[in-house]
Design brief:
By secondary structure, the chain is an alpha/beta fold. It has helices at 14-26, 39-45, 47-52, 80-83, 98-106, 119-132, 166-177, 185-192, 202-214, and strands at residues 6-10, 30-34, 53-60, 88-93, 111-114, 140-143, 146-149, 154-157, 160-162, 182-184, 223-228, 232-237. The protein has 2 domains: 6-132, Response regulator (Rossmann fold, 3-Layer(aba) Sandwich); 140-237, Orthogonal Bundle (Arc Repressor Mutant, subunit A), CATH 1.10.10.10.
Length: 239
Amino acid sequence: MSDNGEVLVVATRQADAIRLCDILCLAGYRPHWCPDFSCSERLQSNGKLATSIVAIVLCHRVQAQPTGTGPSGINLPSELPNQLRCRRIIAVSDCTAEQTVVSLLDDGAHHCFNLLESSSVLQVRLEAALRHHGRPINDILTSGNISFDLLKRRVTHSGFVVDLSPKEYELAYYLFSNRDRLVENGELLTSIWSLPAGMETRRIDTAACRVRKKLKLTAEHGWELKRQRRLGYRLVRTH
């Protein structure tokens, strides 16, 4: 069986943990189970494990559990994406309501899948998400005075680290990877937020505004991030 790396499974219920670990084993990954978010401390204290973990799978439950079975689920701590910048966070939830899905994605999850789907379908979805976010061929992407470290998920401007949120980083990297072409709003929603293309675009405009300000993407600094109303964004080099 192939060894695609280690995945941390965060689930309060043992049955959920066993199911997700079995699915990941079948997909060629080595899972580790944590019942809560002490996983961030575990990663920081174990250097070998920290470098081998490729993703975190969070089991999120909102449906009521039988009395006496413990907590019904766990939410994504706001600080976790920043603590674990170089790892993918995949939420698997028993609730598919739009508000819940959007909340998990806004909090830093890169994907949100339905926990109630069959194990075979869930395995295919997890494999696709992990494969899509596998180790890049090149670890560094540099355009002019802006450089992306794809392993550390960190961006520098003229040699100085710029503090971007996980979604801001992904948006910036996607725009630089597709510079000089119009990237439509629908493409950004599906590629960055894993949301349907037809949803409202306010989250894109907010993130783009912050990226423009933090990375100084204005004509006088050599870059220009242009918003084309109702269409999308285009990043161009000005000099």
